[in-house]
Amino acid sequence: MATLLHIDSSLFPEGSASREVTAKFVEAWKEQHPTGTVIYRDLAAQPLPHLDAAAAAGGPDHALRAELAAELEAADAILIGAPMYNFSIPSTLKAWFDHAIIAGHNATPDSAVGKKPFTIVASRGGSYAPGTPREDFEFVQTYLRKLLEGMFGATDIEFIVPELTLAPAKEEMAALRPLAEQSRTQAHERATAKAKELAARLAA
């Protein structure tokens, strides 16, 4: 029986592109692996405190950090909703990483966490893809890839990127709405396919 750790960090309980895609992933995961387990954390509904000196010093002996690290260790796969806020990840997600990553405990060269597959839904209101005017402002994928590789030695990292999510609501982006809908559809399809593939592989 495989376990999925699902983290959402969008501020918005409704109308969130990242939540929409992570929900598709979880739906497909459960269909493929109905006896599996899903550990869920909604960092907007229940935000974590910023890491302070006591928690940092406590490491794996600090209750909250131990709980979050244990969830990471129990998971066979990790799904993270990471919308772009001000060109980076939500502060709530940064707080989760600050608590969950513990040097010498799970952040080691041979970390078991690094052997797990990570799927990250990196939604954004515009486009920061290679060749676009704001390519240099893309700090979500670059940061998270370096973080997961550098702290855990992770090698199985897949990004699903629904972009132009503000196009339906902004008249100045009206011409981009077909591309936004195409991106949304592709993100849903990739999430469904990835969830089924992982669930089948890990449940075998």
Structure description:
By secondary structure, this protein is of the alpha/beta class. The chain contains six helices and five strands, in the order βαβααβαβαβα. β3, α4 (91-100) and β4 form a beta-alpha-beta unit. α1 packs parallel to α6. The radius of gyration is 17 Å and the shape is globular. The chain starts with a strand and ends with a helix.
Task: Provide a brief overview of the structure.
The protein is of the alpha/beta class and 204 residues long.
Radius of gyration from the CA trace? 17 Å
Number of helices: 6
What structural category arises from helix and sheet content?
alpha/beta
Could you state the order of secondary-structure elements as H and E?
EHEHHEHEHEH
Q: How much strand? A: 5-15%
Uncertain runs with pLDDT below 50, 5 residues or more? none
Please report the total strand number as a whole number: 5
Shape: globular
Give the biggest sheet: 5 strands, parallel
Strand order of the largest sheet: 2-1-3-4-5
Helix content: 40-55%
How far is the first residue's CA from the last residue's CA?
A: 9 Å
Overall mean confidence score, pLDDT? 96
Function: Also exhibits azoreductase activity. Catalyzes the reductive cleavage of the azo bond in aromatic azo compounds to the corresponding amines. Quinone reductase that provides resistance to thiol-specific stress caused by electrophilic quinones.
InterPro entries: Flavodoxin_fold (IPR003680), Flavoprotein-like_sf (IPR029039), FMN-dep_NADH:Q_OxRdtase_AzoR1 (IPR050104), NADH:quinone_OxRdtase_FMN_depd (IPR023048)
Protein name: FMN dependent NADH:quinone oxidoreductase
Cofactor: FMN
